[in-house]
């Protein structure tokens, strides 16, 4: 009995030491004291074993001892097996900052660090711009007109965007820009997402491009010249990075610049001769100034002894000799301006280099640092805005669309996707807002930018598919009345650009985070590079302590022992506590994967992707909890919180299971499963009761629907009719209409109304005649049904409307007439 007691005490004591990462001295005390107790109380065997364990801990754990024999051997092995970090990878790793993502990587997240990012909201000028200029711009768009009729925004809208400074949101006021916060920029793009082309047109100049690059790296002369002109739209920028052979691997771009001299107006000028071919460049067809990335060479060594000067960025005016620009690509679903740029023997002076000659070779660092912010805002905000509009449209449509004498919103097959759409919109809005808030506090989130870009655009893909499903024939029939179909077809653009989601998920989220966010890996690699054994010893054994700590935390928390103290109350508490549990499991699995696979982990992309999925879902859940804690709550929001958190944590656990099942070392996979999930999975998919409750609220005039659609374009006073505003108006009147529907349908079922009264309009008139409703109700229903029918109606066109070449048109109800040129060829 004593032996068993000592074993239990030893295990318990070591688990406490490991959880607290108290180090070898504390473990030595636990084992040594219990070993002596065993000897004194005649439990010699266990006592001796515990003392042997204490001796092993002392020899391997105490710095003074281990550095004499263990550390040198470990250091030599580490230098052989540690992955090599290229200069390009190091630049990416060092770009941006580490914040909450690092806390999740540690396995012991400190919630106070996340809550310390206080939200001071939007400034008055930002609120006014959102309410007025954004609403007016959105009201000038019709998706069909833009996509099919003109393949462009209307001229008056271009003029308005320039006049009101939409292209200068990130440019400080002293240069004529709006100087908006990251949160305001995000909210603007969400509101403009009523139209995909409008959002992209405004978003790109405020994201990765000349404006941001000039702000951070430009010379004073470049800033003074270009920033005011970019702010008021006199200059339209684009940025040329990708090309036929350089996409996701942008560092392999084959475009070159060569340092040379050229005589201009009788004067010898030192400059660059550029040859490049760029593709998929947004705004290129109309750009007046082109940002360009290229590899610079100095074969004559005019600038120094180095020939390969690295990736460099320049800013080139549109009318520069040798540059071909103006042709267009045809992006799927959305005709935003996008096209190729080709340059052959283009000569530019050195002062076109962004930042001047001092920034030669710094292009990749410049791009990565800018991308860490821009990628957090533009596409995630667009995806979030799209989610909110699609939810608003779908909730309204499914409530007024009736089948089998009930709104389709009352059918569970429709309620399931409606609830999912609401959760994805809720998660997206919380995540993009809270991350933008971090940016406003000075963070440059590199890993979160990859999480937001990939996860929220994937949410957009799912959400738009759900929206198409619940709309049915309304959405699959294109025309001016279809507010959804064109945006749906454009969704692959968001999936593909600014780091394709396949690459981002498989390579970037965990691949970058494993080194950038890990508390010790970067220090270990730095010690290897500098051959500093003492620094390696400190980092390596700190790392070992973290591994043991995460194992102990994950295991004990899996049994519900020692739940973390979290600064949340109410329904958020259990989710915050479980993030702590899963964070510990994630940290342990991350270290296990890196240790067991080593440099091969780079090629085991599916395992890397699943580790990234765990991190992504924990990050998204954290942002939802932060938003819940900081914001005001409305009736019904708690159900949406539960649905969203359970949805995300279930996905995180599923990713864990797939990691355990696919690690090449099967024993390791089973061990991790036992440690991280000792009692099995904790989270199932959200319950049907939650789905029913949420679906009802988002398809009726409720406080929850109002909150989810806040700061969208929801007024019907623009140049184009606003479907969201029209659905909102119908929902305000819906309860009254539903009561009349029930009265009339019940009477019809009893045979009190003529059998020919098959349409709602006919039943209204028959009900009025029978005295079942009064004239006021009849007038109300005539107006209500007319508006419902308009929202359900789809467009039709002339038979020959879609044939661009009318001569190829076939009259299927008559004789087929060959085109004139075909007749001539037949005669010949």
Automatic annotation (TrEMBL):
Residues 122-233 form the Acyl-CoA dehydrogenase/oxidase N-terminal domain. The chain crosses the membrane at residues 45-65. Residues 515-797 form the Acyl-CoA dehydrogenase C-terminal bacterial-type domain. Residues 361-501 form the Acyl-CoA dehydrogenase/oxidase C-terminal domain. Keywords: FAD, Flavoprotein, Membrane, Oxidoreductase, Transmembrane, Transmembrane helix. It catalyses: a long-chain 2,3-saturated fatty acyl-CoA + oxidized [electron-transfer flavoprotein] + H(+) = a long-chain (2E)-enoyl-CoA + reduced [electron-transfer flavoprotein]; a medium-chain 2,3-saturated fatty acyl-CoA + oxidized [electron-transfer flavoprotein] + H(+) = a medium-chain (2E)-enoyl-CoA + reduced [electron-transfer flavoprotein]. Pfam families: ACDH_C (PF09317), Acyl-CoA_dh_1 (PF00441), Acyl-CoA_dh_M (PF02770), Acyl-CoA_dh_N (PF02771). InterPro entries: Acyl-CoA_dehydrogenase, Acyl-CoA_Oxase/DH_mid-dom, Acyl-CoA_Oxase/DH_mid-dom_sf, AcylCo_DH-like_C, AcylCo_DH/oxidase_C, AcylCoA_DH/ox_N, AcylCoA_DH/ox_N_sf, AcylCoA_DH/oxidase_NM_dom_sf. This is Acyl-coenzyme A dehydrogenase. It comes from the Bacteria. SUPFAM superfamilies: Acyl-CoA dehydrogenase C-terminal domain-like (SSF47203), Acyl-CoA dehydrogenase NM domain-like (SSF56645). Its EC number is 1.3.8.7, 1.3.8.8. GO terms for biological process: fatty acid beta-oxidation using acyl-CoA dehydrogenase. The keyword Cytoplasm does not apply. GO terms for cellular component: cytoplasm. Pathway: Lipid metabolism; fatty acid beta-oxidation. Belongs to the acyl-CoA dehydrogenase family. PANTHER family: ACYL-COENZYME A DEHYDROGENASE (PTHR48083:SF33), MEDIUM-CHAIN SPECIFIC ACYL-COA DEHYDROGENASE, MITOCHONDRIAL-RELATED (PTHR48083). It comes from Vreelandella maris. Its cofactor is FAD. GO terms for molecular function: flavin adenine dinucleotide binding; long-chain fatty acyl-CoA dehydrogenase activity; medium-chain fatty acyl-CoA dehydrogenase activity. Residues 238-338 form the Acyl-CoA oxidase/dehydrogenase middle domain.
